[in-house]
């Protein structure tokens, strides 16, 4: 079963829905499942999960069971189980396989785990949601915009990208030219004691280095401008979209979740900038310098290429681990941001109830979790970088070893070996840039998924435009409510069969105890507040 990780701590229910649907070849974006299931700041109810699964063509039953249920041979799997997490919060997990005394669990917060029936019983509340497809079931797939949706933003900056690529090309060209300086020095100038030639090519090399510094500065400056323009396009568009969302969006999400996604955009910008350089420059440099290296020494170049599969293998091994670590780190970061922002917003209440210690303890616990997740990501990155460095050092040592043998045998000159080794940097660096895109692209993909959860929600702009076109005479009529019932997200109704009339231009006071539904009733008069 394919594991899907939750984006925020209250998303465990909808993530379990997504995993069950995915098992039956139906793929629906998390943001849409949130809206359908009625997920709010407290998560989703079992009823919300049941009705969502049934909406997509599954039969779902909610039941209370004990450990004997795992011995049933006709138990429909995967199923959703309600548990109490280690942090003592209600949580949902998917049980996708039962083998003997072992349960195979897809936990949206932790990934795939295996537990004994007795161990699972300690956290299980006994509630199960059993789902199976109807006879008329048809899989459905809704695609979500990927990183390619940002291509128009990149194309708007094609002039800057062209100048960056041009500057990078000249920087590499100057590096290649300076590498041949050593070959000429060792093979011709020093053996022939040509001082005048030495002075001439050395002065030329100084000018080459000077131009290289100028182009390095120019490229860094243009890259900075490109980054700022992309930041403005992505971040401001995100904030503009957030402002246009209906009020119920803000009632079901914390401020920290919204802000953390705003900050996640930096990962997308970094990945797009790196990908742009790699596509337009690094690939070209690998081909150009690779051809030059092959001309210098074909056997040494073949030895260099022999290590390429090891780089790819190291990247492939870490793909799933990076996905999990990055998702957990971003989710933990959102929780910390939410707690800090909500604590500062409610500081008056916290002070009134003398709750500073409780709030600090909660933030401290969440921050420690964030540090653990961040440390885990750092460890993964360090291990991968260490493996890449080991491959690079071993390849360099073997190339020098074999090259030295060729020099002794007279197959190549010492200058050619030194030049090959110097040129190797201009081959391995862009190659590693392409390979290292994996980490950035994975972070960007997860950040984009989190960003899309909000960007894909329809704004209320259309409703406001329709409201502006309504004639003022429309409000000369009475307002009439007849048997209005309303509940928040499939919960018990706040309003139940409310009926009354309000005459034109009259003033009405809504009176009642706290929590009786006064504000909820007032919001019924707004256009699509909920």
Automatic annotation (TrEMBL):
<dbReference type="GO" id="GO:0005886">
    <property type="term" value="C:plasma membrane"/>
</dbReference>
<keyword id="KW-0614">Plasmid</keyword>
<keyword id="KW-1278">Translocase</keyword>
<dbReference type="GO" id="GO:0016887">
    <property type="term" value="F:ATP hydrolysis activity"/>
</dbReference>
<dbReference type="Pfam" id="PF03412">
    <property type="entry name" value="Peptidase_C39"/>
</dbReference>
<dbReference type="InterPro" id="IPR005897">
    <property type="entry name" value="Pept_C39_ABC_bacteriocin"/>
</dbReference>
<keyword id="KW-0812">Transmembrane</keyword>
<keyword id="KW-0472">Membrane</keyword>
<dbReference type="InterPro" id="IPR039421">
    <property type="entry name" value="Type_1_exporter"/>
</dbReference>
<dbReference type="Pfam" id="PF00664">
    <property type="entry name" value="ABC_membrane"/>
</dbReference>
<feature type="transmembrane region" description="Helical">
    <location>
        <begin position="160"/>
        <end position="182"/>
    </location>
</feature>
<dbReference type="GO" id="GO:0015421">
    <property type="term" value="F:ABC-type oligopeptide transporter activity"/>
</dbReference>
<keyword id="KW-1003">Cell membrane</keyword>
<feature type="transmembrane region" description="Helical">
    <location>
        <begin position="271"/>
        <end position="294"/>
    </location>
</feature>
<dbReference type="Pfam" id="PF00005">
    <property type="entry name" value="ABC_tran"/>
</dbReference>
<keyword id="KW-0813">Transport</keyword>
<keyword id="KW-0378">Hydrolase</keyword>
<feature type="domain" description="ABC transmembrane type-1">
    <location>
        <begin position="164"/>
        <end position="443"/>
    </location>
</feature>
<feature type="transmembrane region" description="Helical">
    <location>
        <begin position="197"/>
        <end position="215"/>
    </location>
</feature>
<dbReference type="InterPro" id="IPR011527">
    <property type="entry name" value="ABC1_TM_dom"/>
</dbReference>
<dbReference type="InterPro" id="IPR005074">
    <property type="entry name" value="Peptidase_C39"/>
</dbReference>
<feature type="transmembrane region" description="Helical">
    <location>
        <begin position="300"/>
        <end position="319"/>
    </location>
</feature>
<dbReference type="GO" id="GO:0006508">
    <property type="term" value="P:proteolysis"/>
</dbReference>
<dbReference type="InterPro" id="IPR027417">
    <property type="entry name" value="P-loop_NTPase"/>
</dbReference>
<keyword id="KW-0645">Protease</keyword>
<dbReference type="GO" id="GO:0005524">
    <property type="term" value="F:ATP binding"/>
</dbReference>
<dbReference type="GO" id="GO:0043214">
    <property type="term" value="F:ABC-type bacteriocin transporter activity"/>
</dbReference>
<dbReference type="InterPro" id="IPR003439">
    <property type="entry name" value="ABC_transporter-like_ATP-bd"/>
</dbReference>
<feature type="domain" description="Peptidase C39">
    <location>
        <begin position="6"/>
        <end position="131"/>
    </location>
</feature>
<keyword id="KW-1133">Transmembrane helix</keyword>
<dbReference type="GO" id="GO:0008234">
    <property type="term" value="F:cysteine-type peptidase activity"/>
</dbReference>
<feature type="transmembrane region" description="Helical">
    <location>
        <begin position="389"/>
        <end position="408"/>
    </location>
</feature>
<feature type="transmembrane region" description="Helical">
    <location>
        <begin position="414"/>
        <end position="435"/>
    </location>
</feature>
<keyword id="KW-0788">Thiol protease</keyword>
<dbReference type="InterPro" id="IPR036640">
    <property type="entry name" value="ABC1_TM_sf"/>
</dbReference>
<protein>
    <submittedName>
        <fullName>Putative transporter</fullName>
    </submittedName>
</protein>
């Amino acid at each position: 079963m394919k594991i899907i990780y939750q984006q925020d701590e209250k998303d465990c229910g909808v993530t379990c829905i997504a995993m069950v649907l995915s098992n039956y070849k139906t793929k629906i974006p998390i943001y849409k499942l949130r809206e359908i299931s009625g997920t709010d700041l407290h998560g989703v109810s079992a009823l919300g999960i049941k009705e969502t699964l049934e909406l997509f063509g599954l039969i779902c039953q909610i039941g209370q069971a004990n450990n004997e249920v795992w011995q049933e041979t006709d138990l429909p799997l995967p199923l959703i189980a309600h548990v109490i997490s280690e942090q003592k919060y209600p949580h949902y997990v998917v049980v996708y396989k039962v083998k003997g005394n072992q349960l195979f669990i897809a936990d949206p917060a932790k990934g795939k785990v295996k537990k004994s029936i007795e161990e699972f019983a300690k956290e299980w509340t006994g509630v199960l949601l059993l789902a199976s497809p109807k006879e008329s079931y048809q899989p459905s797939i809704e695609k979500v915009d990927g990183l390619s949706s940002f291509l128009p933003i990149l194309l708007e900056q094609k002039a800057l990208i062209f100048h960056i690529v041009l500057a990078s090309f000249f920087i590499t060209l100057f590096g290649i030219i300076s590498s041949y300086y050593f070959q000429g020095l060792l093979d011709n100038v020093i053996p022939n004691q040509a001082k005048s030639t030495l002075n001439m090519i050395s002065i030329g090399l100084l000018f080459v280095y000077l131009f290289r510094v100028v182009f390095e500065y120019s490229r860094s400056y243009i890259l900075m401008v490109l980054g700022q323009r992309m930041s403005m396009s992505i971040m401001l568009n995100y904030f503009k979209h957030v402002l246009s969302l209906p009020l119920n969006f803000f009632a079901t999400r914390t401020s920290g979740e919204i802000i953390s996604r705003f900050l996640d955009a930096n990962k997308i910008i970094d990945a797009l900038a790196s990908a742009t350089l790699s596509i337009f420059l690094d690939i070209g440099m690998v081909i150009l310098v690779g051809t030059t290296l092959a001309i210098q020494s074909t056997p040494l170049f073949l030895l260099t290429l022999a290590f390429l599969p090891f780089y790819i293998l190291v990247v492939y091994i870490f793909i799933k681990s990076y996905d999990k670590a990055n998702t957990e780190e971003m989710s933990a970061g959102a929780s910390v941001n939410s707690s800090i922002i909500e604590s500062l917003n409610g500081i008056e209440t916290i002070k009134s109830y003398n709750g500073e210690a409780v709030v600090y303890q909660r933030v401290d616990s969440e921050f420690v979790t964030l540090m653990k997740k961040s440390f885990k990501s750092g460890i993964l990155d360090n291990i991968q970088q260490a493996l890449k460095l080991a491959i690079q050092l071993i390849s360099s040592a073997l190339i020098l070893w074999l090259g030295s043998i060729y020099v002794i045998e007279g197959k190549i000159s010492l200058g050619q070996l030194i030049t090959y080794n110097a040129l190797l940097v201009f081959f391995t660096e862009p190659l590693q840039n392409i390979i290292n895109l994996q980490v950035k692209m994975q972070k960007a993909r997860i950040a984009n998924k989190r960003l899309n959860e909000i960007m894909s929600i329809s704004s209320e702009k259309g409703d406001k435009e329709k409201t502006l076109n309504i004639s003022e005479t429309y409000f000369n009529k009475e307002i009439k409510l007849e048997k209005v019932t309303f509940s928040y997200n499939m919960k018990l109704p706040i309003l139940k069969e409310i009926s009354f009339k309000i005459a034109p231009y009259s003033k009405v006071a809504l009176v009642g105890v706290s929590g009786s539904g006064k504000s909820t009733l007032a919001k019924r008069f707004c256009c699509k507040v909920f």
